[in-house]
Amino acid sequence: MTALVPRKPVPPFEADILGGGKWRLADQKPKNFSMIVVYRGLHCPICKTYLADLDKKAEAFAQRGTEVFVVSTDSRERAEQAKRDWNLANLKLGYGLGIDAARRWGLYISNSIRESEPAQFAEPGIFLIRPDQTLYAALIQTMPMARPKFDDLMAAIDFVVAKNYPARGEA
To answer: For the whole prediction, is pTM greater than 0.90?
Structure first.
C-alpha cells in the first residue's frame, strides 16, 4: 500500500467508463478539483444510499468547479446493474479498477465474506486532486460505515476555494 502525500503528484489513474471510453485523471481539466469516489461495489447497500446522495449533488459539485468520477473494482456488468438499480443518472461511473491500482492509491482491500461479494474489492475512498495532478485530500476507509457527508465536502470545497486554503498533512 502506498501513502499519498498532499501537495505531491498522484499516481496515474484511469478506469473504463460505462457507455464506452476511459476516464483518465491526466485528461481532466477541472477549475478546482477532480474528485474520485471509490465505492465498494454492487454488493454494498451503504454504497447504494451514499451514491444516490452524490447523484443528487453532482451538479452542485460541478458548480464548485469539481469534476466527479465514481469507480469500483466491479466488472462492467456489475457496474451497469448498480447504475440501473440505484438510479444513478447524473454520475460518470467507472468500473474495473484493478486491485494493484487501488493499492497504489492507498486503498484498503477486503476479501469476500459473502457469496454476493467479489473475491476481493477496494474499500471506500475519496480523493480531491488539484488540476496540476497533486493531491489535496484523501479520505480513505477500512470499512463501509461512517463515510464523509457530501454536504460537508461541498462546504469544505467552498472554504478552501474562498480562503485559498492549502492542502495539509504534507510534512
So the answer is: yes
